[in-house]
Amino acid sequence: xxxxxxxxxxxxxxxxxxxxxxxxxxxxxxxxxxxxxxxxxxxxxxxxxxxxxxxxxxxxxxxxxxxxxxxxxxxxxxxxxxxxxxxxxxxxxxxxxxxxxxxxxxxxxxxxxxxxxxxxxxxxxxxxxxxxxxxxxxxxxxxxxxxxxxxxxxxxxxxxxxxxxxxxxxxxxxxxxxxxxxxxxxxxxxxxxxxxxxxxxxxxxxxxxxxxxxxxxxxxxxxxxxxxxxxxxxxxxxxxxxxxxxxxxxxxxxxxxxxxx
Length: 261
Hints:
Layout: E1 4-12, H1 16-25, E2 29-36, H2 43-49, E3 53-56, H3 71-81, E4 86-91, E5 95-96, H4 98-107, E6 114-123, E7 126-127, E8 137-143, E9 147-151, E10 157-160, E11 166-168, E12 173-177, H5 181-198, H6 204-229, H7 238-260
Parallel strand pairs: 1-2, 1-4, 2-3, 6-11, 6-12
Antiparallel strand pairs: 4-8, 5-12, 6-7, 6-8, 9-10
Helix pairs in contact: 1-2, 5-7, 6-7
C-alpha cells in the first residue's frame, strides 16, 4: 500500500495509555515522528513497535522538571525534523478515522495550502455531538513551504505566509475528554501559568482588549448553552461544560492580576 506523503508529529510524555490508539490511526502515513519529553513508561517502546521516528524534546523549551514550557518551540522542533513537505500534528491522546486519513491523502497531492480540521469530543468512548465547545476546529494540516512556523508558548498556532490558500476538511479528528475534573483544572492552570510567564505585565489598553475578547467568548458560550438545552443527541456532561466557564473566569482574574502589578 502506498503511504500518505505527509509527516505526522506527536508530542509525548508518559503517554503509553493512549499512544497506541493515536499511532494506529495514522499508520498509513509515510513519516510518523514522536517528540518525547523523557517518558519513563512504555511510550518509547510503543512508538518503536509502530516504526515511528523518535526524537527528544529540546531542553531549551522545557521546565526543569521536564514539562513543556514553550509549546510553539517544541512544535517548531518537530517541523524542522519532518521528512515530508506536508505536516500534520496530533496530540498523543487524539486520533483520526479512515475518512480523515483518506481526505488528507487526497489534498496533499494538490496545491500548497493550509487546512482547518473539525474536531469532535469523545467521552468514555462515545462521540459527543452537542457541546458548548462546538464548532471546534484547528489548523492542523499544512504544506511546510506555506508557513513561517509556530508561534506562542501556550495555545500555539501556525503562522501562515501571506497569500497561503486556506481550506476546510470535512472529516473529523477525535479528542477524548477526561472524567477527572481535577486533572482538567490542573492542565488549564498550567496553561494560565505559562501565559503569565510569557506576559507578566499587561497595559490597561491590552487588558481592555483581553476583557472584551473573553467577554465575547463568554457570550458565545451562553448562546451555545441555549442550543445545548434542546439537543436530543449525545451531550457533554454538565460538569465538563461548567469547567469551560471556570476556565474563562480564571483567565479574566489572571488578566486583572497582571494589569495591577
